[in-house]
Amino acid sequence: MSILFVLLTLQVSAALISLAGTILVIAVVVFLMASSSSEEDKYTAKHKVYKVRGRYFFALVFCITVLLIVSLRLLPYPNSQMPPGNTVTVVGAQWSWKLAPGEFNKKVNEFTGKNEITLPVNANIKFVVTSVDVNHSMGIYNSKGDLMIQTQAMPQYKNELQFKFQQPGDYHILCLEYCGLVHANMAGIIHVQ
Amino acid sequence: MIQITPLEKKQQKKLVTIWSITFLTLFPILITLGLLMRLNQGEEINLKANTFYALMTLHGLGMAGVLFSIAFAALWYLISTRYARLRVGVGYFVYFLILIGVVALTIATLIGKFGPGWYLLYPLPFIGTSWKPWSTGLSIISIIILGIAWLIGMLHLLYALAKAYGGITHLLGWQYLGKKEVQQDLPPIVLISTISLVPGVMAFLAGAVMLILYLLQYFEPSLTFDPLLLKNLTFFFGHTLVNITLYCGVGWVYALLPEFTGREWKTNKVVVYSWNATFFFILFAYFHHLYMDFVQPMPLHYAGQIASYLSAIPATAITMFGVIAQLYHSKIKWSVIPLMFLLGTAGWAIGGFAAVVDSTIAINKVLHNTLWVPAHFHTYMLMGIVLFIFAFLFYISSENKGYSTDIKTKLGFWIFVIGAYGFLTMFYLGGLNSVPRRYSDYKGIPIQSTHQTGVLLSQIAVVFIIVLLAGLLLMYISLFSKLLKKEDTVEMPVQA
Ligand code: HEM
Ligand SMILES: [Cu+2]
């Protein structure tokens, strides 16, 4: 069971769902091409298709409702129920990340921090993320290279991200919002112990 | 249906032919920019980062603009020859304005190295830039010119349709919802054009506000604006533009596919309800671009996901099932035109499915701004609207000349499709492996495996892009020989 959980990352689930959808579409295309050689008068053909469509419609509405209800509970946004833990301020700048413990309430361009930080494993961390210049996005990658979570770093705004590192190791921050010339080299590191 | 003189028809035909040739010239050039980007990401060539981003910007703006233009021109042609009188002079005016805009943008990107991406996300055009300052001003002005051109064109079209069908509520099909017998049939393509162009006009107005603010800051750098507000405006504009490009294409699927199946496809209550609902989904779905802005008000996040999910209902249950009802047991002859309509609908479905997955907030947190995003929108652009466009081009180039298509065309088509899906698969795999989008190369990624995966997938993508181009070439050969062939004089009266 736990192996399944490790293998079934969000990315893999997205892949499986999309693959299933694609196969369904291909099947319909092949079916339509293969069956088009026979002829049926248009009223009976239409009637048959519309019967299927009726069932499809109700199935779809049902699925959408269920999926919305389930997925809208799994939001990445901060909730007040989460017990307070360590706070880390993150400031994006062309083209590096600055991190430092604690909340920072002065002007962002006075903020000093380093490109790396050490944080405890299995603790609730609250990242307060902003930018001094243009938009960036703080994407947190685990050591295997899976993107775990992200939030935008927008100037004049503070995005709060709550996250718990469940395994020790080195996590990387990559910039996920195009911010100019050196965007592809804007990385930071989080050591989790 | 309107009566149109052969002379008028000839003039409109000439206009659409000019549009088509312009599109067919620019399209492979823009693909080549994509090829160069993939070559660079695959570490086969070594572009400077500022060159890469200038190419990326030109590719993105160019593709979005050129596809919208040709989609609009196609609608214009079909409407002007069948449903409402349009002034060909306005058509040429729009064409030349767009040409000016495209040339100016090309200069700004290729010479000035203007490179903030297609979306010019505020305040990137103004801070820490690597391009010539004049190119920022030139780009903003040329996008304003493009916007004005489209706005004029769309308003002219809407006005002519409203006149022909008795007002905007009739264009929206509301007469079908009452009890009274409907006097004048509303062709679905007219309904769909309205549903696309009204949000289009709104989006361009929003875009105009945004660009004017940009222009103000360009001339007066001490001014600054709210980045969150401008991000909302940007995506309302950009998302809507791309979204309605696709719907324009869907419009002519409704109009042309029946000519091949011999089954009519008419407006009725269900069609009206579904497209009126689509109107709202077009307006509200764009919020899914801002999920990762946690400070955006929560109801807007919800609205984004709900609108995105619900848009699947009319798209699949009405339009796609409509296509199925057209084709099922229809004994259709599979010339390349209906084939492109079918495969185009499939591409729309596949890309749309991947889009719905990504529009799930809980999943978006790991797919946003990875290669998954270009993966899904390239799917419904390249394998959706582009196929609809080629179907239209083959259609008009065969008008009065018979629809026979030779085996070379079909072969070219299938090669194109295989190349395209191969290229797209590499984008999807990139997204699943968390490879970020808009990276000029992957050398700076500190995670070894991500770097290597990114490079490998790019290299494979290059091979598929070349396959795609080969298929395209085959299709071009037959398309051009048709477009340039004289029409049969028998069916074309000489004088009005
Ligand atoms: C075979 C054809 C095409 C190829 C090879 C291609 C290739 C690419 C590549 C490599 C990127 C950059 C991806 C990244 O790393 O972020 C890109 C971005 C993009 N492409 Fe394409 N593309 C093709 C067709 C299209 C079409 C048909 C459209 C129509 C709208 C399109 C619109 C865009 C846009 C809007 C972007 C984003 C630009 C930005 O991020 O600012 N492309 N394409
Ligand atoms: Cu960045």
Supply Rg of chain B: 22 Å
How confident overall, as mean pLDDT of chain A? 91
CATH topology of the largest domain in chain A: Immunoglobulin-like
This entry's quaternary arrangement is heterodimer
In DSSP terms (H or I, runs of 4 or more residues), the helix count of chain A works out at: 3
Give the number of DSSP strands of chain A: 9
Helix-strand category of chain B? mainly alpha
| CATH class (first level) name of the largest domain in chain A | Mainly Beta
* Domains of chain A (count): 2
Tally of discrete structural domains of chain B = 1
Reported by name, the CATH topology of chain B is Cytochrome C Oxidase, Chain A
Named once each, the bound ligands are:
protoporphyrin IX containing FE, copper (II) ion
Helix content of chain B: over 70%
How far do the termini of chain A sit from each other?
26 Å
Specify the biggest β-sheet of chain A: 5 strands, mixed
Class by SSE composition of chain A? alpha+beta
Rounded to the nearest angstrom, the distance between the terminal CA atoms of chain B is 18 Å
